[in-house]
């Protein structure tokens, strides 16, 4: 309610007395050497206070932007990571790379002055596509990385897979693209930085998914101790993974605030979002499956092409390695799996995590491969799945790729979805569509993903009790639209048995509670922080019990928010009110707790039914059914919203979204909403049925599995399989995302011409 | 955006005066194209003359044979006007299909027609209905007004006061929305008028809105979708860009024409 009534407080809502305003000069070129930067004219412009370039960042000791995990291949070779300067030094490697940072008395003056900075560029040839980057003789994105290959990742048992393919009765191969996307949170980036010379501390307001991770990055890049930076994050307008780490503007604003002795504010535009927020996806997955004569899967082999963009972004390398590998056989019992991913640099915006970060991509590739195998070898796609599902009796199931699935009932989830979607009634519905000149298709996907591994192995929570007995609870995971306030207050209040009105949730307030824990990401907070809040409620009860026992004159039992002993009772909140603070200011019931919650394996079965108008190529989604095993559902309405949002983002990728670069010049061609199609509510012409099929996990206190990214994992393959089902009868062999109306129209025309 | 001086004109005379005094001034109507252009720093006028509140440019008048709409009438007003809906329902429906609610609340008929964006909706209605553009200095027939992409017959400083739409016997508009921008990727306005059948295509033409004479001739003989069978829009002068080739746009123009006819004939 707070947010829809306009009471949210986002990064650009913060202001400080005497603040200055910043603007960024970005590279107009995809690849160029910087010969010279002349800032004199800009510095002399009215109202301009500073024009900062790489020289200033270097003088301040700023290091390379952190390129994620330290990877080493099977030969011990580390991933090649170029230096990623906060502001471009002697080269620019993508359109939109930050080159200079202007600070002035007004935002307009700062923006005007960016146009007075003279940068002499010497343009270089650019490569934007993976295939072009790894081709012999390709221009180098970074001079010291020959062939543009950053890393070759291998996972699984190559020899076992080789042997399985050698004895296979049948094989199928399918390569699918998961095209580059712009993540487009509703809130563009913004920051406000201030420096207090007296204390040496910084205050920074900026959108973030997690305080601890963000402060660690700030320390790694700027060299400032994390404890000297008060990162204050209240509301965040969408994160999707790309708000996980700080961006160059934040460091430069901090530097400028210290240098100029005034707070510095920067508010990005939607153009800044398109050009300089990390991008998502940008990979191609080529799958091969080996089958025996009964249709049992013997092995999966994956050969993946990962376009990293110009630099190693914070989570960029994680996506095409770990995240596409660990669940690369999905819900199926596959004895042998081998993954080989090649990660290459190109002259494009660096990629990072975006809603699933490789997990929707691999789920998509698996479920398209299974459908393709069914089609090629004459199996019913449902029957082929039934033959290969990991069964509940096999749980816990140790997979060939590493993780152990603790729980799940994949066959039952699919049967649930078949029933809910009236799969059996499809042929009649198809006839009815055909009578109206429309093509109708139905597609199914049984997805699984690994959610919630997290960076820290535990999440801490704290409770602080007010003199009025109200309890404020804290953790390090701030929300960006998920509804943490509702979920966590609900978990904590329910466990205590008190009304929710006496509980308040605050995220990321280190001053009140110095905690560690994961940020919001990887679909993990319900399981992770949820469990830690449940533990916190239990800790609070145990802390209160001796005090209650003393008051009541006997060993107190606790139920429904009250302690009772010997016929007397006292409410927990009343008890809290009676207690006096200690000398240290702490309330006797103040307490902390923590929980360790490992990865969960949310899964589900989505069924999409579509109708295509062959005259225009437009596809309507006629029915959408999502049956998900998300473990125990804590807040049904929020879970429903998460699934709707994830599914809709999948629709966006299937039907429209595409970050297109010019193959020659490296210019970014779809860098505004005029050219970049976002998903629209009216694409759904029929019904959306969503039901839960919970198989609770025992690996966390809540029994919850992740939900945030599951919608994408289900909708990409379900929809694409539905589209293939609609057009296969006409002889169409393949479709790749995005299937825009023109793509569908052209595909149908070309197929018709070939058939004629 | 770059800094400029904002001037609000209270009358047409004042607007004319402000424009002649400031040769680098631009007119602001609803601002739904112009403001984004300014924000992207693609225009740098010294002055912006806001004409949206000039009383002479407002209002809708309906007579027995024509609907006259003031240039500063917002799309939402045209779309929701009971009189327009009664006299030329296709025009009201077109207005409610422009952009989104926010655009329709601000955007104006005069602004759209003067800008002559090749993917705008109104130019097709103006051309197909054989409307007359009434300006501060003269009356211009629709057939003479549109002169290519973003180009019109308007002289420097000449302001559209109103547009007079003859009431057709029957008419309909059918639009294919661009998947990203929502503009017309192809839109067809079909009108059966006192002066014959007129078909105007927007969104597809590389020179902006145009009349599809083959379709007009076919529909004049037989006003039915079947009469269009086999007819093709010449794609040699259609827009080809990142989003669609000229063949697709030409094809869509024909499909939208057929659908507009079907809307009329049922």
Number of domains of chain B: 3
Distance between the termini of chain A: 59 Å
Top CATH class of the largest domain in chain B: Alpha Beta
Task: Report the helical percentage of chain A.
Answer: 25-40%
From the 3D coordinates, which CATH architecture of the largest domain in chain A would you assign? 2-Layer Sandwich
State the main characteristics:
heterodimer; A: about 750 residues; alpha+beta; Aldehyde Oxidoreductase, domain 3; Aldehyde Oxidoreductase, domain 4; 3 domains; 7-stranded mixed β-sheet; 5-stranded mixed β-sheet; 19 helices; 30 strands; about 30% helix; globular; B: about 270 residues; Uridine Diphospho-n-acetylenolpyruvylglucosamine Reductase, domain 2; Uridine Diphospho-n-acetylenolpyruvylglucosamine Reductase, domain 3; Enolase-like, domain 1; 5-stranded antiparallel β-sheet; 4-stranded antiparallel β-sheet; 11 helices; 12 strands
Summarize the structure.
Chain A has 756 residues and is α+β, with helices and mostly antiparallel strands. In chain A, helix 10 runs parallel beside helix 18 (710-727).
What does this structure look like?
- The complex is a heterodimer of chains A (756) and B (266).
- With 756 residues, chain A is an alpha+beta fold.
- Chain A folds into three domains: 11-124 and 190-267, Aldehyde oxidase/xanthine dehydrogenase, a/b hammerhead (Aldehyde Oxidoreductase, domain 3); 279-452 and 599-755, Aldehyde Oxidoreductase, domain 4 (2-Layer Sandwich); 459-595, Aldehyde oxidase/xanthine dehydrogenase, molybdopterin binding domain (Aldehyde Oxidoreductase, domain 4).
- Helix content of chain A is 29%, strand content 25%.
- Chain A is built from 19 helices and 30 strands.
- In chain A, the strands form eight sheets. A seven-stranded mixed beta sheet of chain A has the order 3-5-1-13-10-11-12. A five-stranded mixed beta sheet of chain A has the order 7-17-16-15-8. Chain A has a four-stranded mixed beta sheet with strand order 20-28-29-30, sandwiched between helices.
- In chain A, helix 14 (484-496) runs parallel beside helix 15 (528-552).
- The radius of gyration of chain A is 27 Å and the shape is globular.
- The relative contact order of chain A is 0.12.
- Chain B has 266 residues and is of the alpha+beta class.
- Chain B has three domains: 5-50, Uridine Diphospho-n-acetylenolpyruvylglucosamine Reductase, domain 2 (2-Layer Sandwich), CATH 3.30.43; 59-166, Uridine Diphospho-n-acetylenolpyruvylglucosamine Reductase, domain 3; 170-265, 2-Layer Sandwich (Enolase-like, domain 1), CATH 3.30.390.50.
- Helices cover 33% and strands 23% of the residues of chain B.
- Chain B has a five-stranded antiparallel beta sheet.
- In chain B, strand 10 (184-193) and strand 11 form a beta hairpin.
- The radius of gyration of chain B is 18 Å and the shape is globular.
- The model of chain B has no long low-confidence stretch (mean pLDDT 97).
- At the A-B interface, helix 3 and helix 19 of A face helix 11 of B.
């Amino acid at each position: 309610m707070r947010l829809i009534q306009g009471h949210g407080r986002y990064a650009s809502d913060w202001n400080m007395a005497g603040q200055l305003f910043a603007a960024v000069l970005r590279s107009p070129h995809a690849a160029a050497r910087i010969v010279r930067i002349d800032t004199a004219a800009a510095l002399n412009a009215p109202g301009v206070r500073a024009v900062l370039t790489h020289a200033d960042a270097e003088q301040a000791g700023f290091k390379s932007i952190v390129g994620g995990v330290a990877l080493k291949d099977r030969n011990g070779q580390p991933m090649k990571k170029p230096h990623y300067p906060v502001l471009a030094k002697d080269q620019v490697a993508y359109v939109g790379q930050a080159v200079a940072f202007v600070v002035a008395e007004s935002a307009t003056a700062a923006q005007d002055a960016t146009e007075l900075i003279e940068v002499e560029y010497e343009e270089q040839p650019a490569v934007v596509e993976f295939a072009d980057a790894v081709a012999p003789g390709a221009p180098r994105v970074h001079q010291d990385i020959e062939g543009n290959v950053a890393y070759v990742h291998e996972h699984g048992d190559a020899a076992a897979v080789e042997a399985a393919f050698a004895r296979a009765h049948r094989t199928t191969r399918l390569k699918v693209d998961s095209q580059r996307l712009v993540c487009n949170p509703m809130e563009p980036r913004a920051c406000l930085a201030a420096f207090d010379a007296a204390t040496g501390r910084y205050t920074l307001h900026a959108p973030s998914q997690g305080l601890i991770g963000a402060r660690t990055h700030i320390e790694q890049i700027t060299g400032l101790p994390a404890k000297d930076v008060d990162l204050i994050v209240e509301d965040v307008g969408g994160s999707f993974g790309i708000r996980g780490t700080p961006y160059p503007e934040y460091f430069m604003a901090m530097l400028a605030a210290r240098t100029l002795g005034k707070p510095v504010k920067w508010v990005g535009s939607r153009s800044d979002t398109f050009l300089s927020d990390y991008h998502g996806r940008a990979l191609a997955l080529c799958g091969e499956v080996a089958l025996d004569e009964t249709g049992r899967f013997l092995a999966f082999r994956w050969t993946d092409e990962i376009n990293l963009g110009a630099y190693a972004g914070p989570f960029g390398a994680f996506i095409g390695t770990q995240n596409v590998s660990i669940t690369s056989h999905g819900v199926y019992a596959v004895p042998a799996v081998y993954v080989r991913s090649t990660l290459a640099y190109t002259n494009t915006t660096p990629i990072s995590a975006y809603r699933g970060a490789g997990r929707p991509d691999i789920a998509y590739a698996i479920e398209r491969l299974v459908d393709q195998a069914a089609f090629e070898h004459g199996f019913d796609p449902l029957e082929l799945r039934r033959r290969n599902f990991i069964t509940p009796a096999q749980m816990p199931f140790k997979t060939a790729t590493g993780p152990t699935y603790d729980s799940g009932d994949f066959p039952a989830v699919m049967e649930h979805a078949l029933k809910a979607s009236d799969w059996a009634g499809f042929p009649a519905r198809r006839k009815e569509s055909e009578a109206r000149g429309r093509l109708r298709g139905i597609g199914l996907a049984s997805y699984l993903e690994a959610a919630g591994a997290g960076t820290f192995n535990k999440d801490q929570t704290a409770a602080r009790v007010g003199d009025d007995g109200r309890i404020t609870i804290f953790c390090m995971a701030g929300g960006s639209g998920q509804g943490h306030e509702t979920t966590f207050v609900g978990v904590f209040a329910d466990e205590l048995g008190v009304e929710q009105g006496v509980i308040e949730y605050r995220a990321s307030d280190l001053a009140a509670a110095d905690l560690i824990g994961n940020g919001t990401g990887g679909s993990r907070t319900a399981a992770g922080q949820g469990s830690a809040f449940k533990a916190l409620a239990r800790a609070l009860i145990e802390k209160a019990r001796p005090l209650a026992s003393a008051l009541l004159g006997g060993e107190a039992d606790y139920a429904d928010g009250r302690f009772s002993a010997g016929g007397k009772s006292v409410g927990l909140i009343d008890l809290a009110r009676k207690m006096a603070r200690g000398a240290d200011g702490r309330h006797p019931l103040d307490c902390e707790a923590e929980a360790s919650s490992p990865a969960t394996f949310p899964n589900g079965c989505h069924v999409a039914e579509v109708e295509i108008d062959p005259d225009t190529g437009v596809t309507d989604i006629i029915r959408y059914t999502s049956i998900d095993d998300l473990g125990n559902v804590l807040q049904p309405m929020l879970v429903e919203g998460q699934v709707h949002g994830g599914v809709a983002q999948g629709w966006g990728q299937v039907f429209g979204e595409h970050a297109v670069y010019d193959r020659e010049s490296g210019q970014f061609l779809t860098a505004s909403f005029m050219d970049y199609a976002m998903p629209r509510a009216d694409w759904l012409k029929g019904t959306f049925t969503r039901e839960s099929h919970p198989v609770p996990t025992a690996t966390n206190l809540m029994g919850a599995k992740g939900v945030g990214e599951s919608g994408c994992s289900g909708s990409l393959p379900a929809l694409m399989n539905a589209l293939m089902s609609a057009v296969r009868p006409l002889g169409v062999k393949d479709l790749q995302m995005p299937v825009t109306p023109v793509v569908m129209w052209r595909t149908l025309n070309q197929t018709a011409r070939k058939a004629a | 955006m770059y800094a400029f001086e904002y001037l609000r004109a209270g009358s047409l005379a004042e607007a004319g005066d402000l424009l002649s005094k400031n040769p680098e001034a631009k007119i602001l109507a609803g601002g739904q194209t112009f403001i984004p252009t300014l924000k992207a720093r693609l225009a740098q006028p010294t002055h912006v003359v806001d004409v949206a509140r000039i009383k002479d440019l407002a209002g809708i008048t309906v007579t027995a044979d024509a609907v006259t709409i003031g240039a500063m009438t917002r799309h939402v007003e045209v779309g929701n006007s009971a009189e327009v809906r009664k006299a030329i329902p296709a025009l009201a429906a077109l207005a409610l299909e422009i952009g989104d609610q926010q655009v329709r609340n601000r955007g104006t008929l005069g602004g759209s027609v003067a800008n002559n964006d090749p993917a705008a909706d109104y130019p097709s209605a103006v051309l197909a209905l054989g409307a007359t553009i009434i300006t501060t200095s003269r009356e211009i027939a629709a057939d003479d007004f549109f002169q290519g992409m973003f180009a019109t017959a308007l002289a420097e400083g000449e302001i559209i006061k109103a547009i007079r739409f003859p009431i057709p016997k029957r008419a309909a508009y059918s639009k294919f929305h661009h998947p990203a921008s929502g503009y017309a990727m192809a839109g067809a306005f079909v009108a059966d008028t006192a002066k014959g059948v007129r078909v105007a295509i927007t969104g597809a033409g590389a020179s902006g809105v145009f009349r599809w004479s083959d379709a007009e001739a076919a529909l004049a003989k037989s006003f039915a979708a079947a009469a269009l069978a086999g007819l093709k829009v010449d794609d040699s002068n259609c827009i080809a860009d990142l989003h669609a080739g000229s063949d697709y746009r030409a094809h869509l123009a024909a499909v939208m024409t057929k659908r507009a006819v079907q809307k009329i004939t049922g």
